[in-house]
Design goal:
By secondary structure, the protein is an alpha/beta fold. The protein contains five helices and seven strands, in the order βααβαβββαβαβ. The longest helix has 11 residues, at about 125-135.
Length: about 210
């Protein structure tokens, strides 16, 4: 038994023309600076069994997290109820938020069926330790997304983090980027400074 890499998917423009992306984004309207999330949220939530236990690493916005996974809990190093952000402040029930360094979480081994993380690893110190914690805590599945390049995780750091699974950065003319006109259909404004970012979704299963 051990963790097996079962999917690596780099966000592509064509994804936004098919399910689950189309249906999900019709249901959930996101703020106009969420261009990565219109891809990341459908990718992650479509792969989680809502009836299983879920731990979120990195404080996914509660208006989205609990609408999709009402029984989830989230780990963040900050008290998200008082960070000065209108999508976090006073929106977290005490039992839903675990305030902890994600590199060392005081949760027993294999205590959650699924562990998810949405664009959080690239913002954390020592992401390899965070990934190890995810693998320690999950018993069935890990689903994560990451921004690579530009203002996201540097490509060599990404290669190093996933060296055991030989995941490499990927670029294509079909990649979803922050200045693609298709984003306008989803209420997103093109963001020039983020044009170098590529978004990836990764799934591990315990087998």
């Amino acid at each position: 038994m051990g963790w097996e890499l079962t999917e690596v998917r780099w966000a592509a423009t064509r994804d936004l023309k098919i399910d689950p992306w189309v249906t999900w984004n019709k249901t959930f309207k996101l703020p106009r600076w969420f261009w990565q999330r219109i891809w990341e949220y459908p990718f992650v939530f479509s792969k989680v069994n809502v009836n299983e236990s879920v731990l979120d690493i990195g404080g996914t916005y509660p208006f989205i997290l609990f609408a999709n996974l009402p029984n989830a809990r989230s780990v963040d190093s900050r008290d998200l109820n008082s960070v000065g952000h209108y999508l976090h402040d006073n929106l977290w029930p005490a039992e839903k938020l675990i305030i902890s360094d994600a590199r060392k979480i005081l949760i027993p081994d294999k205590s959650y069926d699924n562990v998810i993380s949405i664009s959080a690893l690239e913002e954390m110190p020592e992401p390899e330790k965070v990934l190890n914690e995810m693998m320690r805590i999950a018993s069935k599945k890990i689903i994560l997304t990451c921004d690579v390049g530009g203002y996201g995780m540097q490509e060599q750091d990404f290669i190093n983090l996933f060296a055991n699974w030989h995941i490499k950065p990927f670029r294509s003319r079909k990649s979803l980027i922050s200045v693609n006109p298709i984003l306008l259909k989803f209420g997103q404004r093109p963001i020039w400074k983020n044009r170098a970012i590529r978004v990836v979704g990764i799934v591990f299963d315990y087998r």
